[in-house]
Amino acid sequence: MADNAHLQRPPAEVRFADELARLRDTDRAHRPPGWALSLEAARRFIVGDEAAGISRKFVGDPSLIDRSLVTLATSRGLMLVGEPGTAKSLLSELIAAAVCGESTLTIQGGAATTEDQVKYSWNYALLVAEGPTPRSLVPAPMLRGMAEGKVVRFEEITRCPLEVQDCMLSLLSERVVAVPELPGADGMVFARDGFNVIATANTRDRGVNEMSAALKRRFNFETVFPIADFGTELELVEREAGRLLERSGVGAPPRRDVLEVLVRTFRDLRGSGPSPADRLSTVMSTAEAVSVAHAVGLRGWYLRGEPGSAADVVECLAGTAAKDSPEDLARLRRYLEQQVPRRKGTQWQELHRARHRLPG
Ligand SMILES: Nc1ncnc2c1ncn2[C@@H]1O[C@H](COP(=O)(O)OP(=O)(O)O)[C@@H](O)[C@H]1O
Ligand SMILES: [Mg+2]
After folding, report:
1. pTM for the predicted model, two decimal places
2. Residue ranges of the AAA+ ATPase domain (predicted)?
3. Which of 9, 206, 288, 354 is the most exposed place for a label (fewest CB within 10 A)?
4. pLDDT for 203-240, tens place per residue?
5. Which are the contacts of 358, defined by CB distance < 8 A and separation ≥ 6?
6. Where are the domains of the chain?
7. 242 CB less than 6 Å from ligand 1?
């Protein structure tokens, strides 16, 4: 593991290698063909099991995990949809790591995604030297996932051009990749047990509307919702920001009262506070709250040698909450002027006092 010590973010199967090994050793339940764990053990890996020393990684409805795992054991793909920052990518990574021990067979969807990046391409030097042979073939995640019986992740699938989405259709229904250039048996790569696809799509930006109806039929949809409960969200932000700060060499854990103000502010600006008019057009997700808490801790520690304060929250909010929208900046300013003074506590007062630090 020494090699991984300096990686900013190793994949889930590396980060939680010991947990996965322990689950595998004690797993006595039935496993679907080709799976590394039973559904029961995979669920515990994701939602945690305190008694067995398995950490809680995804906070949310455990029945969502059960349904997702059942879908993956069928021949339909799993589509996770939801707002940005609701942990769709994290969940797909965790599920892939649990089901097949590998989460890196991933296609990142975007406007420039091509069929080559989904199926296969060629090593041109070898192709010229010896023609199309299995050696000159460069497999992409779908081909590898099928050949090895693994879970393939397709991130942001709706951002891909429709032609690329369409090429997934036959792959998902026929469960074979044809490589017409290769002669004989090499020209057909059939999917082995354990292969399936987890796709993710944001409901903002380019949403699921952009997905072809034919493709929709090949997936079961699961919606991932933002964390509803304040205490649960606070706990998650505290844990995740604490972990990130430790990795960034910060010697002081984040202050609870500062995080309370931060998480409450995010919820207010999400429109779930007392005044729905405070809602910003930017997505104020839990993932953003974690990254602001991280930045607040970094500011405090590296600028002054102490944990961050509510004044640091104001400094970090402008870049997250307002981005390039003058309307959001105005709403944020109004929130700090009008709503914040109504709240009680020294960190709220400090947040109010620091309001002039907003740029512009
Ligand atoms: N329900 C949740 N459970 C665990 N972490 C969450 C949850 N919601 C948000 N997060 C945080 O958000 C981060 C992941 O966001 P990400 O998976 O990139 O979201 P998405 O793909 O939906 O945009 C996680 O690393 C975690 O810190
Ligand atoms: Mg994502």
Report:
1. 0.93
2. 74-229
3. 9
4. 876 655 578 888 889 999 999 999 999 999 999 999 99
5. 314, 317, 318, 322, 329, 332, 333, 336
6. 2-223, 230-357
7. no
